[in-house]
Amino acid sequence: MLIIPAIDLKDGKCVRLLQGREDAVTVYSEDPVLTARQWESCGAKLLHVVDLDGAFTGNQKNLQAVKRIRESVGMDMELGGGIRDMEKIDELVEMGIHRVILGTVAIEKSTLVEEACKKYPGKIIVGIDAREGKVAVKGWVEVTTIDAKSLAREAERKGVTGIIYTDIAKDGMMTGPNIMAVNEMVRTVNIPVIASGGVSSLEDIKKLQGIEGLWGVITGKAIYSGSLDLREAIQLVKSDG
């Protein structure tokens, strides 16, 4: 299981939002490049980056910051947030982003997901954000009636290389991940599932390790607040692997 540090970008800065609310912002670092290097030095092999401005508006405002991070670290990068057309996917792949995360478009433009998977096999991930099993879109502003597991199965059929599953109710709340929901998602599809939301301690990592077949876990607020030591978490899963 991979431990994947997260960098959320807003106005070029490294921030965290509470439960995805645009008005609940904490700035952790003015320099995301230094933050990325710090996480790489802890042993991270993959960096999860979200363009929050993109998620809320559909326009990437943080591409310069993303480019600077890409040029300064050797680890793989996955990026999401407001990616809603093929031109943007092209640009990110050319920039050296290893996996592009599609969210809202998986519902609104499902043909784009299929086309992107054909054009870039192994590089397209669908991010499914859910509250009580239902999919939320547009930076979590809207909750739909779409079942998260149904969307995951549909994404798998279209050829995506993995699913990032976020339980919104848990995100940034440091109350522990929704183990049951993550386990159900892992059982639903045959492609890698990455869990996100709620991780607050090494104990949470151990609980997630108990989910057979879980490919990775994203951690954000916990490593910024210091309640989880990234190096220690990476060592823990290494020693068990």
Tell me what you see in this structure.
The mean pLDDT is 91. Helices cover 39% and strands 27% of the residues. It has helices at residues 32-41, 52-57, 63-72, 86-95, 105-108, 110-119, 148-158, 179-188, 202-209, 221-225, 230-240; strands at residues 2-10, 13-17, 25-29, 46-51, 76-80, 99-102, 124-131, 134-137, 142-147, 162-167, 193-196, 216-219. By secondary structure, it is an alpha/beta fold. Helix 4 links the parallel strand 5 and strand 6 (99-102). Helix 9 packs parallel to helix 11 (230-240). The chain is built from eleven helices and twelve strands.
Q: What layout of secondary structure does this protein have?
A:
Elements (H helix, E strand, L loop, with lengths): L1 E9 L2 E5 L7 E5 L2 H10 L4 E6 H6 L5 H10 L3 E5 L5 H10 L3 E4 L2 H4 L1 H10 L4 E8 L2 E4 L4 E6 H11 L3 E6 L11 H10 L4 E4 L5 H8 L6 E4 L1 H5 L4 H11 L1
Parallel strand pairs: 1-4, 1-12, 4-5, 5-6, 6-7, 7-10, 10-11, 11-12
Antiparallel strand pairs: 1-2, 2-3, 7-8, 8-9
Helix pairs in contact: 1-3, 9-11
